[in-house]
Design brief:
two-stranded parallel sheet, alpha+beta, 148 residues, three-stranded antiparallel β-sheet
């Protein structure tokens, strides 16, 4: 298994205390994969805002992750990020916003999630018509795509 720059950095620098525990876990993960084991990653919350997909895509391509179990927030945020990322608005002082400033963001169709606002028109509304059509067509045919 080839090692990249992060693996080399960890091997060289993470030798003591809790850092060594991370090194032990990484070695265990490598051994698990080399012995034919499979890896499942579980995610909760909208981790895609951290561009986690960039890391995971490479791990999937290299067969280092076989299963991902995630909340709907990851799927939703990932598709909105795909279509509207360049329109997101960063709010670095979000902790200091007044109620009026919060209202102004909402009135300007920005949905604030911590320090970033997702633009309603560019993200939600752009996708809404497509998703509604899929749901409507399925309903008209009596089809369901969920087990429940």
């Amino acid at each position: 298994m080839s090692k990249g720059p992060i693996s080399h950095f960890i091997e060289h620098n993470y030798r003591h205390f809790n850092a060594a525990a991370l090194m032990d876990a990484a070695k265990g993960y490598e051994t698990h994969l080399l012995e034919g084991g499979k890896m499942m990653i579980t995610l909760a919350g909208a981790m895609s805002t951290a561009e986690l997909g960039i890391s995971l895509a490479e791990m999937i391509r290299q067969d280092k992750v076989q299963i991902i179990s995630c909340t709907g927030a990851n799927l939703e945020e990932d598709i909105m990020n795909l279509v509207a990322h360049s329109h997101y608005k960063r709010v670095p002082n979000y902790r200091d916003l007044s109620p009026q400033e919060e209202w102004d963001l909402l009135e300007n169709h920005y949905n604030r999630v911590t320090d970033t606002c997702i633009p309603e028109e560019e993200a939600f509304r752009r996708l809404q018509a497509h998703i509604h059509k899929i749901w409507k067509d399925a309903d008209d045919k009596g089809e369901r795509y969920f087990p429940h």
